[in-house]
User: Fold this.
Amino acid sequence: MAERLDLDEVRARLEQARGREYWRGLEELAESEEFRELLHREFPPGAAEWLDPVSRRRFLQLMGASIALAGLSGCTRQPSEPIVPYVQQPEQIVPGKPLFFATAVTLRGYASGVLVESHEGRPTKIEGNPDHPASLGATDVYGQAWVLDLYDPDRAQALTRGGRIRPWASFRETVGASIESQRSNRGARLRILTETVTSPTLARQLREILAQMPEAKWVQYEPAGRDGVREGARLAFGEAVETHYRFDQARVVLSIDADFVAGMPGNLRYIRDWVSARRVDAEGKGEMNRLYAVESAPSPTGAVADHRIALKPSGVEAVARAVAAELGVGVRAGAGVAQHGPWIAAAAADLKKHAGASLVIAGEEQPAAVHALAHAMNHALGNVGKTVVHTEPVEAEPQNQLEGLKHLADEIDRGLVDVLLILGGNPVFTAPADLDLAKRLDKVALRTYWGAYQDETSALCHWHVPAAHPLETWSDARAHDGTVTILQPLIDPLYEGKSAHELLAALFGSEGEKTSHDLVRETYAQGKDKAELDRFWRRALHDGLVAGTALPAKSVTLRTDWTSLPAPSIADGGGGLEIAFRLDPTVFDGRWANNGWLQELPKPLTKLAWDNAAIVSPATAGRLGLESEMLVTLVLEGRSVEAPVWVQPGQAEDCVTVHLGYGRARAGRVGAGAGFDAYAIRSSTSPWAAAGLEVRKSRGRKPLVCTQLHHSMEGRHIVRAASLEEFRKEPEFARKLGEDPGREDTMYEPPVVYDGYAWGMAIDLSACVGCNACVIACQAENNIPVVGKDQVARQRAMHWIRLDRYYKGSIDAPETALQPVPCMHCENAPCEVVCPVGATNHSAEGLNDMIYNRCVGTRYCANNCPYKVRRFNFYLDSDWATESLKGVRNPNVTVRSRGVMEKCTYCVQRINAAKIEAEKQDRRVRDGEIRTACQQVCPADAIVFGDVNDAQSRVAKLRADPRNYGLLAELNTRPRTTYLAQVRNPNPDIAELEPARAEEREG
Amino acid sequence: MAETPEQVHPEAHRPPVIEPGHSFSSVTDQISSIVLTHRTPAGWWLGFALVFSIAMMLFYSVAYLVVVGVGIWGINAPVGWGFAIINFVWWIGIGHAGTLISAILLLLRQEWRTSINRFAEAMTLFAVAQAGIFPLIHLGRPWLGYWLFPYPNTMAVWPQFRSPLMWDVFAVATYATVSALFWFIGLIPDLATLRDRSENRAARIIYGMLAMGWRGSARHWHRYETAYLLLAGLATPLVLSVHTVVSFDFAISIVPGWHSTIFPPYFVAGAIYAGFAMVLLIAIPLRWAYGLEDFITMRHLQNMCKILLATGMIVFYGYLMEAFFGWYSGSIYEWYMTKNRAVGPYAPLYWALIFCNGVAPQVFWSARARSSIAVQFIVAIIVSIGMWLERFIIVVTSLHRDFLPSSWGMYTPTQWDWMTLIGTLGFFTTLLFLFIRVLPMISIFEMRTILPGAAVRAKEEPA
Assistant:
């Protein structure tokens, strides 16, 4: 579809772009500077310099070089592509200069503000919006991957009926007529099924429809539903209440299977806040928060917790009850967690000690009772208003989604539904298995599906309206605190995509079709005159949020009677295997099954890619006679699915965790055949956890791919860690664990002096939460190819930054260490000396540069790299063929060809862009002006990049921190990327982690 | 040529270097008739068909490699080098025996070398040819392999001379050139013999051109001897330098298991070891197939067994020292590497290597074993496998677990790896078959010099 990006298109689009507001920032300011310079300077830059004899020689050199290069280009095959300049330069578009537009990405309906980079009308990269409360400049892995979906060649491209392409008018006429016919019975036989809606515009439209047809029903369903959260709030307060947290105010946090790093709205904000309350300075001053985690499956939150216990779901609930009882909530302590008594007592005591500055947070997957208890505990601790904020619901219509869907399925079964409009979500795939939606849908006379892909649901619907990608259309959404963002398009729909707003307006609107733009604008038009609305609109689009829409804190009354709390959802906490369903950390509920970046992203702790698995603990695997990759049949409530086993240290005993979202029947070319469908055994009675799981061994094995095969540090001081106490006693502990030869320790002539910029990076291991965002941000920024499961299995994944994970201590309750590893840009780089053609060289600023077109591919550099950060294009790994994928590429980064080595460049394209700007303004690059892709995306602010020669730069200060150490510095590689050792803050009253620590000290 | 008494009067307990009863003409007849026969033996055709079809496998897999990429091999992120480099070092090692026999033994006046040096040199050339394939095809972009040469170019870019791969290019190219020259010069008098004895006009022309006008005059012989001796002097340091430089590919790096000062001598000894095993492997079937037992006698085979024993022990000493220094270095990485070789996932291969190279040749302490063709042949095979395993152990076990355990991995060769390796064996034997058919596999004129008659004549007619 490259033709779609031609000039006419761009021009036409720009003409239409009324009211669109561009992101204005430093870049733009700088741009106008450049413009002025161009206009006012009599000679173009550099002209005066020809008078200088040295420069004249330089000129001749350049001429010679360009002639040589011209000759050279004749030797290689160049694609024939017409390059046409703008005849009329569109305002604000300077070829080669990206523009940034503020919009938002949504997940489970909740928005996270982003700035989308656009190159000549092509969105290429998503960054967080620093002004947005749910982003603060960061994104998670999904936020990064959104842009790839836009260009997915497998997206539904045309409106179809029964698989045959139909015109929009025909659709409007037919479906519109059916809906009209429903008006007579006030919509009694009309149902609309959506995902969670926070969009004020969509909610307004739906409410208008319901007003016209009061008997019609609007059902929301999301497999990643927050029913536990909603019902928990109802249980605790008797009304729907949204809760969000202020981790920065919390000194002690207890997570009850709450993966706030990845698994809930507002996670980016929570990470930033949690880390900010965790930083200690060089002297060990500053109070460090403490995190207790109880969880079933290993999660990033558990990995960074100071104390963690792994329990099967019934045990998690029992711990919640036990802690609540300790904190004085009138509830009976759960059974079966007696052996964790001291732990629970210590944690409760710690929480009590920090009353008002503590926080109990329950996971989204926890049942309502646990959420209610968490509320009770926070109230008992006096945390409300301090670390816990209650507001009105962010969702437009908080519903018990599971009940709603059950009811809908029941109505369909009873033949009460004639017209069903499904707005996204792929419910046929994601609905609980016992509802058997696929079969029941047959009873609906007219089924219309609006979705981005030809998926399981579209296959069972009469009409399929392709959904416009959120980067192609207007919409709005709210963040976890209620802040509204208006989503703006960056590109015209690549295919015939429609927004949900347009669809509803076309089908139900009395005044005919309207554009999404007008529909969204209407929502905010109330009480504003045109000029006011224009101002509002511009401001909202520019900022990426509507100021003042965050929901105010709301006072709530907590129930007093806790004895009538529902019994634990899994009654028998004693014996038997339990199963925990979790959203997949990469493909989520299945919606990203066709996203290559996410499929290939190693999952945070298992390091599996391209598959899900039945995750069991080593002890349980031993007891059941299982080993990794062995196929088993999981039988639950009479339903079964075949799954490969993965033995995972840190998994709870007697608990099998399965991740949803895999096993898609109709996913597209990327997702086809990946994993097994865990929805097949997930019922509406136990959506997140169930007892009575049976594991039967099947014949055969299924190979899984794991990017890290070895779990132990082998006594090497790779990730250096200490407790806060140890750190205060000996701030230099990290340096003492390894030798770092001095710069003067050399036989050779004085070492190279870096007197200009000297780029360096510091990674704070205390801050890193292992969320994986850096990995995928790097992939998006640097055009890193996706190589596929087969190649990952052969250890040829291409990620330039990887997240290493090591275990310490016992295999059953290990302590986890995480370490992001990009290129170290060694000053004495072992890779450089061994390249026979000089394809990798050191820059004057200390970058270890890679010259792709000089590389002949001996791979010697990769062999000699002690950090193994070099990646080789064993095949033509970059997709040079698929037209649509060309759009997502960063034009400032070479798309690599077959047979060349590549690796982290410190985002040299960003460095050079900033240097050019700085040189134009005749100044040095300011600290913080260059942010590498991994740094920019990091919600924990764990990665800092800058000029180590500038003593005032953040990176230089971090390098001076006593915790700073170089990985494998004893090899005298003099790495420019250094690490700040991890400091944990364990509770001295809990001795359980001591053995692990003692071992580490000895090792 | 000076002679020792024992060549003229072979002692009873040592087999002679040439069986008694041969005259100048019988030597010439027997050796040249193999080439000049009208009828190519059916066995030759059969063997050639077999090995050439194996060679075709090499051509096919290389063609596929060039089309698709080195991804068809088993190499991956921690193990960037696999069969290609293993095979390269193995073949280069094999390619050491010929020049060693020709040059060093010539200078050391080991006359027994005469009957084996010609085909040993040919073997060297063919082995180096096999070895030469790999550095090129193992490149990600083989069509740019010429960038490793310092040729003048418009980009004004030179190779990077600090890289041992660069040194390799020079070392191997020099070795190949000198070996080829040495071999060709040694062939000239025999080419003239073939020219003179050939009945086929085309053969006469071709041999005549290759003989470069050799007439056997005293002046020719004088210049010939001088040139040959000079080339021998030139080739001698090369025998030592090539594998030293090849070992630098590893020793210069920082990979535990590669970064080792013992590599140069240990590689050279290993090369000679592997080379002599290969000479044995070729000599034994050849003398059987062409009835050359008179020329390639038990004496030759036994001497080669002794060399195998000696070099094998040097190599074994190398293994011991590697292990010792793994511990003595005090480096956790080196020590882990040493332990990993012995007990890690590739431990069976390591112990197989110790058996093949350290234990198996020890049978040659026994005179009975040394005089058994079967034992010689089996041990030669074991040693060849062992030397291949040695390179596998060095290349793979060092890389697969180096510094950061997060990046550790495993290496498993693919069918393409095996096809390439076996294909080079086929190509190598194909070239040998052609060589046997068109050139005298034993130096005719040199064989004549070790006849008893040559010695007498030399005394009667001082030059």
